[in-house]
């Protein structure tokens, strides 16, 4: 298990999410460790080696949503030891199938079509989906309103490529290969990484810890971020 002591924290954001989307987590961790935030604004080939070059045995990696998937894949490829991996609202197999909970290929396929037709509308739709079901959904929806405009510099090509990660990556075997503490944080109201993941995660990864956060949607707001930080820092 995590011992609660790490020198640095690397936060990796989700699909189409700017750095400001990571602010609640970054602020919750600030003061105790050096915090670095990463967004998925570049290709996997360019981003992955830059990430892992800064990781060591005293680094805690916190991957939110698709950021968790990227962390799993890179850690499995690189074989690097870290202090631990926290997966927030993440799923090693986002589409899911008959034996694994997920959002389904139909939704992700519709995202791909909508991205071609109207990028702005898709991003607004996605950010609303992230806050759906939260205890403070209305306030969170207002908080995410500006996310789409903050990533205007991101290319359509990269958004499409990283959406394909969501649609095609099945990292369940890679997750099983990681030889350091792993903690999963699932939102009880999450519409993207469903809370039903708890059972298969516990069955398939008995050494992992699974925490359910009541009232949390897919977006980790300030309250959820404080809970996550306290869990990780207490070991």
Please describe what this structure looks like.
- By secondary structure, this protein is α/β, with parallel strands linked by helices.
- The chain has a single domain (8-233), classed as Alpha/Beta hydrolase fold, catalytic domain (Rossmann fold), CATH 3.40.50.1820.
- The protein is built from eleven helices and six strands.
- The protein has helices at residues 23-29, 44-52, 66-78, 105-117, 119-131, 137-144, 147-150, 156-168, 172-177, 198-204, 222-233; strands at 8-12, 34-38, 59-64, 84-88, 182-187, 209-213.
- Strands 2-1-3-4-5-6 form a six-stranded parallel sheet, sandwiched between helices.
- Strand 3 (59-64), helix 3 and strand 4 (84-88) form a beta-alpha-beta unit.
- Helix 4 (105-117) packs antiparallel against helix 8 (156-168).
- The mean pLDDT is 93.
Task: Spell out the key features of this protein.
single chain, 235 residues, alpha/beta, Rossmann fold, 6-stranded parallel β-sheet, 6 strands, 45% helix, 14% strand, globular
Low-pLDDT stretches are none
Please report which band the strand proportion falls in: under 5%, 5-15%, 15-25%, 25-35%, 35-45% or over 45%. 5-15%
Instruction: Please give the CATH architecture.
Output: 3-Layer(aba) Sandwich
Structural class: alpha/beta
The topology string of helices and strands comes to EHEHEHEHHHHHHEHEH
* Amino-to-carboxy terminus distance: 7 Å
Number of helices: 11
Tell me about the biggest sheet?
6 strands, parallel
- Give the oligomeric state of the chains in this entry, treating copies of one chain as homo and distinct chains as hetero: single chain
- How would you write the strand order of the largest sheet? 2-1-3-4-5-6
Number of strands: 6
Shape: globular
The count of domains is 1
Q: Share of helix among residues?
A: 40-55%
CATH class: Alpha Beta
């Amino acid at each position: 298990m995590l011992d609660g002591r790490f020198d640095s924290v690397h936060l990796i954001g989700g699909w189409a999410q700017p750095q400001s989307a990571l602010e609640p987590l970054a602020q919750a961790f600030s003061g105790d460790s050096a915090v670095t935030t990463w967004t998925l604004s570049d290709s996997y080939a360019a981003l992955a080696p830059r990430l892992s070059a800064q990781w060591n045995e005293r680094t805690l990696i916190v991957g939110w949503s698709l950021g968790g998937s990227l962390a799993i894949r890179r850690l499995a490829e690189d074989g690097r030891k870290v202090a631990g991996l926290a997966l927030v609202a993440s799923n090693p197999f986002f589409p899911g199938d008959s034996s694994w909970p997920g959002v389904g290929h139909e939704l992700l396929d519709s995202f791909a079509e909508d991205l071609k037709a109207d990028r702005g509308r898709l991003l607004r739709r996605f950010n609303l989906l992230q806050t759906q079901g939260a205890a403070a959904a209305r306030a969170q929806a207002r908080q995410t309103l500006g996310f789409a405009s903050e990533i205007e510099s991101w290319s359509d090509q990269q958004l499409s490529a990283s959406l394909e990660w969501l649609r095609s990556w099945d990292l369940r075997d890679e997750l099983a290969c990681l030889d350091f503490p792993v903690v999963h944080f699932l939102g009880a109201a999450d519409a993207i990484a469903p809370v039903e993941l708890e059972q298969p995660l516990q069955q398939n990864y008995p050494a992992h810890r699974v925490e359910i956060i009541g009232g949390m949607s897919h977006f980790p707001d300030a309250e959820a971020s404080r809970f996550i930080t306290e869990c990780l820092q207490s070991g």
